[in-house]
Design goal:
This protein is mostly helical. It is about 50% helix and about 10% strand. It has a domain of about 80 residues: Herpes Virus-1. The chain has 9 helices and 9 strands. The strands form 4 sheets. A 3-stranded antiparallel β-sheet has the order 8-7-9. It has a two-stranded antiparallel ribbon with strand order 1-6. The protein is rod-shaped and about 180 Å long. This is Tripartite motif-containing protein 54.
Length: about 350
């Protein structure tokens, strides 16, 4: 059905008054503010009743605790700023007396009904030009006039007074807005919770990586200590063998030097032309040569004395064990003496699956 607009100008109609009226519209009920008017921390205003409706929708668990809500929070429908209530609930919000005074002045100086501008435009029936749209066809779900109900297309339909349907749908829309706002609040809270979980996962991951790094550093330290001990053992054996061989070298060197000198003495004796003198000296030289020859049984090291091959270690089993290092689960973790750093954000028994059910 098509409608034509008929305007009923009110006294004092001007753009400034219209702008003032727009500023006095509650964003929840879309009506002129109903006193008492409360001002939120973000400096936006609401009817206290509308503020309570939004709060109740945002905090369904508090709905059955009486008309005065205690504590809780909701978001401003205009800017989404979070409003935190004290124990007095919405009754603890400060009243905006300035806005209430402006409403009183507006009421006293304006003869127009305190309704949004759309309500001041009177719709006229396009079938009966002299008839105002004053009823609502429940069957066709459209506004119409009384003549259409009596004589026109809606004579067999169910109808209701237009103001009643207007108020009812206005209330339903306001409730739907409040529910939507509450749903947005819950979604935002869930997003914040997920962001906290993501941040906590990152922190816990870094903590566990540091824990693993520390454990491997401990293994490195153990390996380094053991390597130093084994190398020192080989070094002691090396020094012992080298000392023994060097002592033999010195001993045999002394024997060789003595033998060379004895050879020189014997040669000099053989050059003696006097037979008597030669025989007298040769006897002593011969005795020294005989004694030296008897002492020429040179001590030697046994075969393979220089080998160090007996200092061997088998690291295959240890290497396999190191390669098999993994995270402990179940009963293995309970038997271990090492404990990983406790996760401060996860209660005992809480797993990733439980987090996904938040």
């Amino acid at each position: 059905m098509n409608f034509t607009l008929g305007f009923k100008p009110a006294m004092g109609d001007s753009s400034s008054v219209e702008n003032l009226e727009k500023q006095l519209i509650c964003p929840i009920c879309l009506e002129i503010f109903t006193k008492p008017v409360v001002i939120l921390p973000c400096q936006h205003n609401l009817c206290r009743k509308c503020a309570n409706d939004v709060y109740q929708a945002s905090n369904p668990l508090w709905q059955n605790r009486g008309p005065v809500s205690t504590g809780g929070r909701f978001r401003c429908p205009s800017c989404r700023h979070e409003v935190v209530l004290d124990r007095h609930g919405v009754y603890g919000l400060q009243r905006n007396l300035l806005v209430e005074n402006i409403i009183d002045i507006y009421k006293s100086e304006s003869t127009r009904p305190l309704l949004p501008k759309a309500e001041q435009q009177q719709l006229m029936c396009d079938q009966h030009e002299e008839e105002k749209i004053n009823i609502y066809c429940l069957t066709c779900e459209t506004p119409t006039c009384s003549m259409c109900k009596v004589f026109g297309a809606h004579k067999d339909c169910d109808v209701a007074p237009l103001p009643d349907i207007y108020k009812r749908q206005k209330t339903e829309l306001s409730d739907a807005i409040a529910i939507l706002v509450a749903g947005n609040d819950r979604t935002q809270a869930l997003i914040s919770q997920m962001e906290d979980i993501c941040r906590t996962v990152k922190e816990n991951g870094h903590r566990q990586m540091q824990y693993i790094s520390d454990k491997f550093d401990e293994l490195y330290a153990i390996l380094e200590d053991r390597k130093r001990d084994l190398i020192e053992t080989v070094g002691r054996e090396q020094d012992l063998k080298q000392g023994h061989v060097r002592s033999l070298i010195r001993r045999h060197g002394d024997h060789l030097e003595m033998s060379v000198k004895l050879v020189e003495t014997a040669i000099q004796s053989m050059e003696e032309p006097q037979m008597a003198v030669f025989l007298q000296s040769a006897k002593e030289v011969f005795k020294k040569i005989t004694d030296t020859a008897k002492a020429s049984n040179i001590e030697r090291t046994e075969a393979g004395y220089e080998s160090m091959a007996h200092f061997i270690i088998n690291t295959e089993d240890v290497a396999d064990m190191l390669r098999g290092i993994n995270f402990q689960t179940g009963e293995d973790g309970e038997d271990s003496g090492d404990e990983a750093p406790e996760d401060p954000t996860t209660s005992p028994g809480q797993t990733g699956e439980s987090l996904r059910r938040i």
